[in-house]
Amino acid sequence: MYPQSLTNLIEKFRLLPGVGEKTAERYALLISDMDELEVQGFADALIDVKKNLKHCRICGNLSDQEECSICKNPDRNHRQIFVVQSAKDVIAMERTGEFRGVYHVLNGLISMSKGIGPDELNIDELIHRAEDCDEIILATNTTMDGETTAMYLGKVIRERCPNTLVTRIAHGLPAGGLLDYADEITLSHALSGRKKIG
Amino acid sequence: MYPQSLTNLIEKFRLLPGVGEKTAERYALLISDMDELEVQGFADALIDVKKNLKHCRICGNLSDQEECSICKNPDRNHRQIFVVQSAKDVIAMERTGEFRGVYHVLNGLISMSKGIGPDELNIDELIHRAEDCDEIILATNTTMDGETTAMYLGKVIRERCPNTLVTRIAHGLPAGGLLDYADEITLSHALSGRKKIG
User: Fold this and answer.
1) What is the value of ipTM here, to two decimals?
2) What's the pLDDT tens digit per position in A138-151?
């Protein structure tokens, strides 16, 4: 019922995650109210991302250059590698400011249900890097696919690089998390991961 | 912390209504995963909207042409005009399939708080159209600004075109609305707008 050009734009916005008809309409109507330069800037930013963004050839993280800023940084500990599913996880971890090692981004997870095997992920390069490092920290999510991937990686790296320490990040109650609101899997992780105090 | 091109795109997405940092990140990361043709199509759709979309010169509705499809339709009753705030409201009303008249889109509301006066809205044209029609239905929202605008329009049109009927759409309980969940203003509208039955 909208004019063709607006209908087209609404359809494009619907491609974004979690955007339904109403939200796409609101976005498209806002665009139609923006001034021409702003809209041109938006369109250019879309094209630029596609043109300039690549995966770092070392760790697979998103980067405007061949190697990402973390891999190029000589102040980071390149013998400690934090393995994650996607570039978003790198940002989340960097925000803590606690980690001084480097990353490896798998760009996906091994998934039986989606038919994704180890060959389709950035895993060969990780095994290659593991030979030359002290610790591989597996930080894939605690979903079914995340656990499967962590188990697979742990096994392969221990076989190929027996001198490299392989660890998994801790799982348990989140900060401020209440016991009676926690789900069973979180609670079971919290119990099995308990530490001696005092 | 993201590469520059991705940061730019995240900033652009944050211009959209209700989009915060996290959502903009998710949108931008999805774009970086799309194939090049899809992204080009998205960018073209943005530019197209800006290039092709205009306000219908009769009613102010959004259109790809000088006159919108409703104003050009000879089967509509051009002597009955439904006055709304924005193009979204036209679509909402058209979805009911109940209205066979035409529209007038003000593209805003008179607003004391935002300093928007009648001269900044599509009102002169409405008064001009009102001279030649049977009924003006005021359908601005029941917000403070919506009521102010309806009151102003009602007064001006009655003065200038005393032969034109001016009506306001009914306000009351929505379909399926429960009495004890309704706010006071809705209930007070429902009471004052009550009709004789039987």
Assistant:
1) 0.76
2) 999 888 999 999 99
